[in-house]
Write a structure and sequence with these properties.
Chain lengths: 148, 83
């Protein structure tokens, strides 16, 4: 399942909804990404997340389906927020459920690595009288390419 | 044909969407980029040959040689920074 939304998410509730009544899950890994209050040494007071409605959902669904296929996940979830966020706010949630821990750990990392480079979101940071678009990082491409 | 711009590119070009009818010779993503650069100084600057940009045709990532046709939704944007 994938969702793009403005509202915050509750990790506990999402996890409970995803796994209720399931006895085929032996391992669950959850990853939450949050807004930092610093970026390349500069203060960040606010972050705005823009996305490409339609393609974003398509890319997230494609990434999730690939993780299910590759790691044999028995349940999974990707939630990503858009709009205005402040430091400490959760941005992204990835949950990977599998029969065994290795698959769940790997799948959570796989989904995040591809989300970072393929899902059309863009961050703009504001703070201390300045604002600017966050630059893509080469490390993120390298992290994704390790899966190839 | 609908052209969509996002993030920094949207700001540099000054619009998020253009409905355009490129000439018949514009057959690929690379042709379109070249043609778009001729539309204004802002286009030329933002879409300059050195600009690091991604292109999606009908919401799927495309390459310079990807064919395009009337009715397509073409999105042009900087490398993504979600997560």
């Amino acid at each position: 399942m994938i969702r793009v939304q403005q509202e915050p998410f509750d990790v506990g509730k999402e996890l409970a909804a995803l796994t209720v009544g399931r006895s085929d899950i032996g391992a669950t890994v959850t990853f939450t990404g949050q807004v930092r209050d610093f970026s390349d040494g500069a203060d960040v007071q606010k972050m705005t997340l823009e996305h490409y409605p339609g393609m974003t959902e398509k890319e997230l669904a494609r990434i999730e389906a690939e993780a299910v296929r590759r790691f044999g996940l028995t349940a999974s979830l990707i939630v990503h927020r858009v709009g205005e966020l402040t430091p400490g706010d959760p941005i992204v949630l990835v949950i990977a459920c599998a029969p065994h821990r290795g698959q769940a750990f790997d799948a959570a990392r796989f989904m995040m690595d591809f989300l970072k480079t393929d899902a059309p979101f863009w961050k703009k940071e504001q703070g201390a009288g300045r604002e600017g678009w966050v630059e893509a990082r080469e490390e993120d491409d390298a992290a994704r390419d390790k899966w190839k | 044909m609908t052209i969509l711009y996002f993030a920094r590119l949207r700001e540099e070009i000054g619009t998020s969407e253009e409905k355009l009818d490129p000439p018949a010779g514009v057959k690929t993503v690379a042709d379109l980029m070249k043609w778009l650069r001729g539309r204004s100084e802002d286009h030329a600057h933002a879409l300059g040959p050195g600009a690091l940009l991604k292109v999606a045709v009908n919401q799927t990532y495309a390459e310079p040689g990807t064919p395009i046709s009337a009715g397509d939704e073409i999105a042009i944007f900087p490398p993504v920074t979600g997560g």
